[in-house]
From TrEMBL:
Residues 26-35 have a biased composition (Basic and acidic residues). This is TetR/AcrR family transcriptional regulator. SUPFAM superfamilies: Homeodomain-like (SSF46689), Tetracyclin repressor-like, C-terminal domain (SSF48498). InterPro entries: Homeodomain-like_sf (IPR009057), HTH-type_TetR-like_transc_reg (IPR050109), HTH_TetR (IPR001647), Repressor_TetR_C (IPR004111), Tet_transcr_reg_TetR-rel_C_sf (IPR036271). GO terms for molecular function: DNA-binding transcription factor activity; transcription cis-regulatory region binding. It holds the Pfam family TetR_N. Residues 1-35 are annotated as: Disordered. It comes from the Bacteria. Residues 33-93 form the HTH tetR-type domain. Keywords: DNA-binding, Transcription, Transcription regulation. GO terms for biological process: negative regulation of DNA-templated transcription.
Length: 218
């Protein structure tokens, strides 16, 4: 099983590296026919077919028809590549549209399904489908900082949904924690939790947030 770092290894996130890319000298001398985007896409496909436990740079290189050392022209470590694959997968998740701002032109009232609760439901169900399609995403989310551009876009969408609840302060913090734990916990068990059980748990979560938001001072 791949872990965030090998014993005794100190590493930082690939997203904290300057430019998130290989040095110019390395790129100019790299083997032709490869680039980081192609390697990342192949990593996602290999993880989907072989699973996280069987992933290796050697297997990835064989699928691309290159030597394993060729991959290191584009990434410093296997962990960097797994972080890139994680964010690539998160980019498949459709994010809910934002509610119109107060200064925007008036629009007809949205049906209940399009309020924050409907958008939260869509986001949660989409995330569950993503984890079911890519079972390796859940363990990598727990193992790595998960601060790539698609991960940050996902969190921004969640923050906007919570803004629409009207909660503030500790209540808002608690709601964010509850939703995050639900998505990573119940969502991470996508292949073991039935659709009905997931929908019921999501109903309870949303009802709790609605009840808290309805209380004076929330």
């Amino acid at each position: 099983m791949v872990t965030a770092a090998d014993p005794g290894e100190t590493r930082t996130s690939v997203w904290l590296s300057p430019g998130h890319g290989a040095p110019a000298k390395r790129r100019s001398e790299a083997p032709s026919g490869l680039d980081r985007d192609r390697i990342t896409g192949a990593t996602v496909r290999l993880l989907d077919t072989e699973g996280l436990a069987r992933f290796s740079m050697r297997r990835l290189a064989a699928g691309l028809g290159v030597t394993a050392m060729s991959l290191y022209w584009y990434v410093d470590t296997k962990h960097d590549l797994l972080e890139l694959a994680l964010d690539r997968a998160l980019g498949e998740l459709p994010l809910p549209r934002s509610a119109p701002a107060a200064a925007d032109p008036p629009v007809p009232a949205a049906p209940p399904a399009e309020g924050w609760s409907g958008r939260l439901r869509s986001l949660a169900c989409g995330y569950r489908r993503l984890l079911a399609e890519h079972p390796w995403v859940a363990p990598l989310t727990a193992a790595y900082p998960n601060i790539g551009p698609h991960a940050r876009a996902f969190d921004s969408a969640l923050q906007r949904l919570l803004d629409a609840t009207g909660l503030a302060g500790a209540c808002r913090t608690g709601a964010h924690l509850a939703v995050s734990q639900f998505l990573h916990g119940c969502g991470g068990a996508a292949r073991r939790t039935s659709e009905g059980d997931f929908a019921l748990a999501l109903d309870v979560l949303i009802a709790g947030i609605e009840a808290k938001a309805a209380r004076p001072g929330a």
